[in-house]
TrEMBL record:
<dbReference type="Pfam" id="PF00392">
    <property type="entry name" value="GntR"/>
</dbReference>
<dbReference type="InterPro" id="IPR036390">
    <property type="entry name" value="WH_DNA-bd_sf"/>
</dbReference>
<dbReference type="InterPro" id="IPR036388">
    <property type="entry name" value="WH-like_DNA-bd_sf"/>
</dbReference>
<keyword id="KW-0804">Transcription</keyword>
<protein>
    <submittedName>
        <fullName>GntR family transcriptional regulator</fullName>
    </submittedName>
</protein>
<dbReference type="GO" id="GO:0003677">
    <property type="term" value="F:DNA binding"/>
</dbReference>
<dbReference type="InterPro" id="IPR000524">
    <property type="entry name" value="Tscrpt_reg_HTH_GntR"/>
</dbReference>
<keyword id="KW-0238">DNA-binding</keyword>
<dbReference type="GO" id="GO:0003700">
    <property type="term" value="F:DNA-binding transcription factor activity"/>
</dbReference>
<keyword id="KW-0805">Transcription regulation</keyword>
<feature type="domain" description="HTH gntR-type">
    <location>
        <begin position="11"/>
        <end position="79"/>
    </location>
</feature>
Length: 130
């Protein structure tokens, strides 16, 4: 998986890193136990401060996406990502609410909102193996 970081984007670089790793897991491009580059290696490859990568990795670790071992390095959590809990759903509602409010303010219909969500979901969700 290749990260594509936009150094000019409004979204912080550490957030871009997190989002792309999470999307890689969702798309099954990154599987449980897969190695990720070390903090210093990824920072060097992207050309950013290693503290930025460290912040992304620490947040991903807190959220259960990765494990960080001193000797083994950084890996996608071998047990996979924890299933959604009620706390996750509450956080999801909190994050989506302002987007829905902004969409309504801009006259985006419920049907259009649902279509956008469905399209993005289909882009990310891996196809089932036959």
């Amino acid at each position: 998986m290749l990260l594509q970081i936009d150094l000019q984007a409004e979204e912080p670089i550490y957030t871009q890193i997190m989002h792309q790793i999470i999307e890689g897991i969702a798309k099954k491009e990154l599987k449980p136990g897969d190695d990720l580059p070390s903090v210093r290696s990824l920072a060097s490859d992207i050309g950013i401060n290693f503290h930025t990568v460290n912040k992304a990795y620490q947040l991903l670790k807190q959220e259960g996406y990765i494990l960080i071992h001193r000797q083994k390095g950084v890996v996608i959590h071998p047990d996979g990502v924890e299933k959604a809990t009620e706390a996750f759903y509450e956080e999801l509602r909190r994050k989506v609410r302002p987007l829905i409010a902004e969409s309504i303010s801009r006259s985006v219909s419920k049907t259009e909102w649902e279509k956008i969500c469905a399209t993005i979901y289909e882009e990310i969700e891996p196809e089932e193996e036959q």
